[in-house]
Amino acid sequence: MSQTVCKAPPSCVTMDHGQILKGAIMFYAANPRQFDPIARFALDPGLAVPEVVLFQTAALLIDTLGVAAGAAALDVGRIAREFACDFHGAAREEHRATLLFDGRRCAMPGAAWALATQIDNLDAHDGLNATKGHIGCALVPALFAFAEHRPNLTGRQALTALTMGYEVAARAAVALHATACDYHTSGAWNALGVAALGAHLRGDTAEVLRHALGIAEYHGPRSQMMREIASPTMLHDGSGMGALVGISSLLQAERGFTGAPAITVEGSEVAHVWADLGCDWTVMRNYIKPYPICRWAHGALECLRVLVAEEGVKPDQIDALEVATFAQSAALFPGMPETTSEAQYSLGFALAAYLVHGRLGPAEITGDALHDPRVAAMHARITVREEPRHSVRFPEGRWSDVTVRLKDGREVHSGDRNARGGPEAPMPEADIRAKLSVMAGGALTEARIDALWSMRRRLLDQGTEFSQLASLVTPEPDRP
Fold first, then answer.
1. What is the DSSP letter of 44?
2. What is the four-CA torsion angle of 244, 211, 57, 173, rounded to 10 degrees?
3. The MmgE/PrpD C-terminal domain covers which part of the protein (predicted)?
4. What domains, with CATH codes, occur in the chain?
5. Which of 20, 31, 73, 147 is the most buried (most CB within 10 A)?
6. What would the DSSP string read from start to end of 376-421?
7. How confident is the model over 22-45, as a mean pLDDT?
8. Would you say 421 and 292 are in contact if contact means Cβ atoms under 8 Å apart?
9. How high does pLDDT run on average in the chain?
């Protein structure tokens, strides 16, 4: 999948009213013929997905569920689930879905919103560099909401639908970044992947899909990512609203609600983005995060991991630490965090916590760990600056380099390092399995975690039903 430099649409350029009107008409013109092959791909019940691609999707699915389990105890997870139950009711049972790791039921859009919000706020879920954001965070909650009404859905069918959703969402992201004036959160475009996923599973027509994508693009949360970076909150990357909008858009379209064609799908400016759909499987380039921290900090964290593991650097030896990184990473939250949201959009805190604790999981970014005086002391020794050579490598990579000055006067340099977990620097399988226990250990028994891990391969077996996976993450609700 190719990517272009951001080109502002005509409405973003200074011009008189007549020029704006003419430019807008040109820019918003849709091409139904461009949509046809996309619809055939998205709605094909026998879509042929290579086995290696299905297995990659299965790994992303299980990893995302581990993050969801780890986030279940966060305040934001509790708030989201309570809100969904209180305000997202459904008149009929067939419109409800179960809240994962909870057991209560609410309307399908609300259930997906709650889980996506929960996942988004333990920032350890997968992503794709070219999208500058996250796909599975919204698609996995939608998959469970839709699959609950497909009792005979097989594991392979679910993985096929999920893979298709990843491919649609990835291209919607690149198309939006190439044509919009601002840097939008993932919810702005992963809503389209959610709508496509649902249309595939529900056997909808191309006309329904076209309207659903148009509604999802129109209502997708075009929230500004850098606002959240500057002031981190529970909003995170907008994927909760992406999941809600995606499901709502499809359900509306099924009832005859119409939507203007999605220009990120049908605009002539983005035709090249969709041209390789079904040939280039972008899901193979998704990364799995080693840590529950914004991906922009992961290049520097990899530098530190190498210095500790290979150079033997110890926290008590460090006099000062300088990080050279790309502009977006240098813009991360600079101070000592007061909240988990601030901690996850940090750079200096993430490095300090990793050095002090020797690890970086949920326990290191929540509760009393946010006020550890040892971490604060280490944080004070860290400086961050932008390095132009790393900035030009973004978004294809997340590069940084770290220089440590030791108390004995020596300097140790990491060299340039890219973030770990993607195809350029994959995590060993043992590390991915270990991450699952770190993330889910507070919510699930080790036996349940083992069962989740085994589903990564079992989902590809012809005899495995998706409900077998769902049963591991949807407990029975408490009964009065």
1. -
2. -80
3. 291-448
4. 10-285 (1.10.4100.10), 295-413 (3.30.1330.120)
5. 147
6. HHHHTTEEEEE-HHHHTTTTT---EEEEEEETTS-EEE---BPPSS
7. 79
8. no
9. 92
